[in-house]
Amino acid sequence: MTPGDAKTRILTEWRTWIGHRQAVVSHTADEALAFFKEIEQSKPDLVSFDSADKWQLVRGWLLDAGLIKE
User: Fold this and answer.
1) Are 69 and 26 in contact (CB under 8 A)?
2) Are the beta carbons of 26 and 67 closer than 8 angstroms?
3) pTM of the model
4) CA-CA distance, 17 to 51, in Å (whole number)?
5) CA distance 9 to 42
6) Integer Cα distance of 28 and 51 in angstroms
7) Which of 14, 42, 49, 51 is the Cys-Cys partner for 6 at CB 3.0 to 4.6 Å?
8) Are 31 and 25 in contact (CB under 8 A)?
9) Is the four-CA dihedral 45, 19, 37, 68 of positive or negative sign?
């Protein structure tokens, strides 16, 4: 999977994953890390792209999209 494809799918997955949690404008990096660890285990195809630090890349995508705060 390319990083571009992964980004689209991961942002969609985040919105689904976070949807049943409390409704706030922006979530934390800690929640994002829990999400990342969960998809690593349950949906490894979402993180099958090449990257030296997949967590930092996914974190950046979530930050850039305004879905988490630092």
Assistant:
1) yes
2) yes
3) 0.86
4) 23
5) 14
6) 23
7) 49
8) no
9) positive
Question: What local confidence, expressed as pLDDT, does residue 26 receive?
Answer: 64
Tally of helices (H runs) and strands (E runs) in the chain: 3, 2
How far, rounded to the nearest angstrom, does the alpha carbon of residue 39 sit from its chain's CA centroid? 8
Q: Which of 3, 2, 6, 30 is nearest to 18 (CA)?
A: 30
Q: What is the pLDDT of residues 14-68, one digit of tens each?
A: 988 887 665 555 688 899 999 999 999 999 999 999 999 999 999 999 999 988 9
Decide: 18 and 31 in contact? Cβ < 8 Å. Answer: yes
Strands 27-28 and 68-69: parallel
